[in-house]
Amino acid sequence: MTASLRLRDIAVEFPIYSGGSRSLKKVLFNRTTQGNLARDAHDRITVLALSEITLDIEHGDRLAIIGANGAGKSTLLKVLAGIYEPTRGQLYASGKISALLTASVGLNPDATGRENIITRGMFMDVHPRDMRPRIDEIAEFTELGYYIDMPVRTYSAGMMIRLCFAVATSVRPQILLMDEWIAAGDAAFLNKARQRMEDFLASTSILVLASHSVPLLKEWCNRAILLDHGRILAMGSVDEVGAAYERSFA
Amino acid sequence: MVSVASTELDPENAAEWPAPPGRTALASRDLADGFGRVWMWSALAFQDTRLRYRGSMLGPFWLTISTLVMVIAMGVIYAQLFNQEPSTYLPFLTIGLIVWQLLNGMITEGCDTFLREASTIQQVPIPFSIHAYRNVCRNFIVLAHNVVIVPFGLAIFSIPIGWSVLAIIPGLLMIAINGVWISILLGMISTRFRDVPPIVASFLQVLFFLTPIIWPPELLGHWHPVATFNPLFAAVDVVRAPLLGVPTAPGSWIMLVCVTVAGSGITFAAFARFRSRIAYWI
Lengths: 250, 282
Description:
The structure holds two protein chains of two kinds.
Chain A: E1 4-16, H1 24-33, H2 35-42, E2 45-57, E3 62-66, H3 73-81, E4 88-94, E5 97-100, H4 113-123, H5 128-131, H6 135-142, H7 157-168, E6 175-178, H8 187-202, E7 206-211, H9 214-220, E8 223-228, E9 231-236, H10 238-248
Parallel strand pairs in A: 3-7, 3-8, 5-6, 6-7
Antiparallel strand pairs in A: 1-2, 1-4, 8-9
Helix pairs in contact in A: 1-2, 4-7, 6-7
Chain B: H1 23-36, H2 38-52, H3 61-81, H4 86-110, H5 118-121, H6 129-146, H7 149-156, H8 168-192, H9 196-210, H10 224-228, H11 231-244, H12 252-274, H13 278-281
Helix pairs in contact in B: 1-6, 1-12, 2-6, 3-4, 4-6, 4-7, 4-8, 4-9, 4-11, 6-8, 8-11, 8-12, 11-12
């Protein structure tokens, strides 16, 4: 089965809960007193994080999502990953999806690297019995050495990133979604990561990479969209869209 | 996420695409897919237990010991206070406390079902129900450690253990089903309203004293129904009575079945309505 993602007129609205509407007591109290207070709890401020997103991502696409901070890049990745169900519009996906969204990726600080590899594997729907044989390979790539048997809270930020990256790329999804944090590793790691990514991408059908670094995106992607305030402003080749992005703050 | 193969959809003709499944279908699929991943939630529950007691020599058996200490200390005092025969009171108290710990654990940790997994929920789309099954499973693992005390207790006080003991199985099963809906419902409410977990914890504290666990319901005389008309009593009773070799109170099973049906129904409706909001509330 080839992979694809189809988005039609997708919108995502975030409710912003201030202190008051986070409290059951206040919400109940306001209900019963009605009057002015009621507005407090129900006048929720919502942020329109994405709107009118219509997009088809096909097999072979290496899609770059370009945009400034707060443009909706991460939200769009989360919609594609199936984490946020859009408040409006439709999303159809086929293909196994793996997402590398933030560096902390729910690592359990008290568990060892080894245990976290198993847990992360489970969350990617890989049975521990299938994950165990991959631990050695992951340990080798991450150069964690004996740290692999130490609690993750003793790791440096770079070690955590290496671990997460290695685990996420140890299974072969058809669709890989990545946020730009991956560029946070040191130079030596980035070189190694690039090598692994190339092998990995050879067997991946779709890559979606979000970043505001145009050079990084040019290297990896063959298509791009420009996001601004949750809308798609431009769509096309990475060069065109990258240029449009750079013009936007020139 | 929709399971229609998107490659079969004509990009030019979005109007003819099949409608995505409704909320109810998505909620049922979440519950079923989650339950089907037994390996996942059971492994996670075992890992939780292991991590909680990492570095302690006795591991989860600390629970057993603390339960044992509590039972002995309370047993001696309260047997005197309530003027009870220790040989019947101690087993009554032991089993009551152990079942209470199960219920208490499921309810208090149920508030945390989704909150404690905030980072996972923000990262990977796995069925939400996994976290609820994991919560119930973890508390049954704790129960399994505590239960070690029971055979000794029953032997010491020479309470005969017969096949009737098997009657606790449907009781425990009912408690597990209730644990699932409680974890989902309280988990969702607590994610939306952050003051709910402390409210629940303080209510449970009160309920512990109102539920006949440290005192036998007979002591209330003709006020007796007040104590037994209580879902928590029903849950304790369906496990405790068979182990003590006495009949369950007349209303216990009816109460438990009613609570299970009503709770599951309400939770399913709420889950169908708000499931997709959990990731936003986190």
